[in-house]
Fold this protein.
Amino acid sequence: MKHLFIMFFVFFLFSCKNEDKATVGSIYPEEAAAIAKHGEIRLLDEAELQKSWEKRLEGMKLTAFEVIKGKTEGENGEDYYMVLARTEDGIKVAALLEMRGDKFYFDASGQKDSESYLLVVCKGECDQGCLPAVKLAEGAKRIICSSCADCSKNEVEVF
């Protein structure tokens, strides 16, 4: 009887569904996307991030990624972190990060589905540049684009 129980237990372990979960540096909100080391913030898997974002952005070719720290617009400026990517023709793509300890995760706080986050695409030709910025709205951080006439904003949800 003991052997039968052991065989059943071993069979159970091997038959459990092993989901192909992403590792650290993932594109998913529950996995770290960046880490702070020695005062520098670096992405953990830029190639995977580029592949994922380009797929969601349908044909847009991203060339450069960086993590930016800034202050929200308005009187009570709060710190924020975002991943910023660019295309060769000047389009900027950004997503907010949430810092937990020395790791950074995609901020899913404004989403209905906690397993997704927003990419914001800023496109246009302004004198100051059509740049993403962060503003506090209803107690939450939101990415906006420069307020010039030729700057447009598009949001894309990443799952």
